[in-house]
Amino acid sequence: MQVNLLQIHVEESPEANIEKVINLTKEVKGRIFILPELFTTGFNYDHVKRHVKSQPELLKKLPDSNTYIGSIARQADNNIYNSFFVKKGDKLDFIYDKIHLFPLMDEHIHFKSGNNTKIFELDNFKCGCAICFDLRFPELFRQYFLNNVEVVFIPMQWPHSRVGQMIPLATARAIENQCYVVICNAVGTIWGSYFGGNSMVISPTGELLVSAKENIDKVYSATLKKDVINDFRKSMPIANCLKLL
Description:
alpha/beta, six-stranded mixed beta sheet
């Protein structure tokens, strides 16, 4: 499976962000693109509340010729969630609502936490997802491991000041769960906060396959291979030794 990281600077206009994604991806077909967390609005809560109802319809403008995954603000049951989506062709699914909300940006005040996970399939790979701050909670990723998930996708708006923590955390999640970890982070100053980019793909053995560093509005690609997962799980049989205390 080929995955494509679309590391963008999030603009203040939701429509401008959609147009940016369209322009960067419209020349190709049949690809999988992962976008940053809240890629249409960023973390300006007045802005989010003003635009939240239009977000699902806005996503439908993305080309049906590709698969797009990421997160947006979504309103449901009189609450606002930070929701992971998969848009495959003309079908739009909301797979997961962010469980661990980031207190340093008051996310827990403005969004409601999710309470479950869902496994989905892309190109015959068993996939899971998390969103940004979730990366710090290995229990979530262990649930995916116990269900034989092969790839975990993580859209992010991770601050530049803590990129030095993001990289080893992501590497650990990949190695300990013997899966690919695919991260797409926002980059640059967005609503007054500076985000660190360094979108990346990490193999089950901890190899950094691609890094976007701090480049803006660029696409980076990597190929994921099932035999890398299977060989590592066979040679290092963690699942047979796991004890949940």
